[in-house]
Amino acid sequence: MSGDAVREQATDEVVETVAAGPGRILRIAIPTLGVLVAEPIYLLFDMAVVGRLGALALAGLAVGGLILGLVSTQLTFLSYGTTARAARRHGAGDTAGAIGEGVQASWLAVGIGVAIIAVLQVLAGPITHAVAGRADIADEAVRWVRIACCGVPLILLANAGNGWMRGVQRIRRPLVYVIAGLVISAVLCPTLVHGLLGAPRLGLAGSATANLAGQLVSGGFFLSSLVRQRVPLAPQPEIMRDQLRLGRDLIMRSFAFQACFVSAGAVASRFGAASVAAHQLVLQLWNFLSLTLDSLAIAAQTLVGAALGAGQAAGAQRLARRITAWSTLFAIVLAVLFGAGSVLVPELFTGDAQVLDRVHVIWWFFVPLIPVAGVVFALDGVLLGAGDAAYLRNTTMLAGLLGFLPMIWLSLVFHWGIAGIWAGLSGFIVARLVAVGIRAVSGRWARVGAELPS
User: pTM of the predicted model, to two decimals?
Assistant: First the structure.
């Protein structure tokens, strides 16, 4: 393709991006939602398979999964940060540079992943004992962790692959790659755990081996797709340093979330089994809704980043308003459904009268927060697409440290119970709404150019 044809195609894509309507937004959001929910759905299947080994194996899986999940969660900058940087370059017509962001993110993924393997192989015992609190559970978990952690570089490669592909708006292929890996894991998991079809019965180690095999398939697909793009594959330390600088902000923001929600769980457990069970039940529903709304936030990130890369600040602001409106409307529909299902939905998960009583206390914090989250998550996506991660880091940490965490611990001191914890969560979300709302209205985030603002 000639240079003129490439520029003409880039111009056409900019026009389509800035004018993105519901169809274009959904073409990004729906496959993205598939990628986001595929892993949690598989983990439920994995738990069901391992659960037939008994409570000890299931507890070992829970501890091991928590450790590996924390590692993966803290490194999501390889997807979110890469999307922001690649979308900018793609919008500016530099698709090769956008894919090059994926190359450098993949080098980081391999380097960080290998370092994590080394650390966990040495410290898996002490870490699992510290988390589990019991030697028998820790002994189960440590075997799972030592096998499963070998897949960390592959998980991070998939994160980087999702990042650059979202940035250049190739959205369907990552879903295929992720599902292919999970299908392999889903076939191997019961086979290896229970020794079906003549396979060795590996027990809990079979679960970790199945996970590793699936990650090898997904990671291999992402790596192969990157190599086929015919872009330079050599490491470029300057680009990697810039990616790590953005990653630092996203990691600190993620730590703020983790501190708040771990504290909430710890305090809920001190109000009794019924309270912690109710808290966990509604929190899982909240997490599922968050993934659903995140799919629209990632669409905002992708499209806004491309518009700013193309020098279209006004177009990016129109996109921000449009996607936020759609996310809010969708969230209102979800809130109406969950409000109408206030009796039915909790009873799908438990029949315990005490747990249901606590759930109903939480429910009327949970439902009104859904539309608020629709606005917050969409604007989070807008600001991430604009590279405004430092602002998000600072405001999220302030909202957590000055609002959510004090309210959680005051609930324990003054015996406010589960209502106090969810009042704290409500304050946290509302504080974030105010922060991202002020930033969005100011327009200071809409800085154009192929490079993210420093």
Answer: 0.85
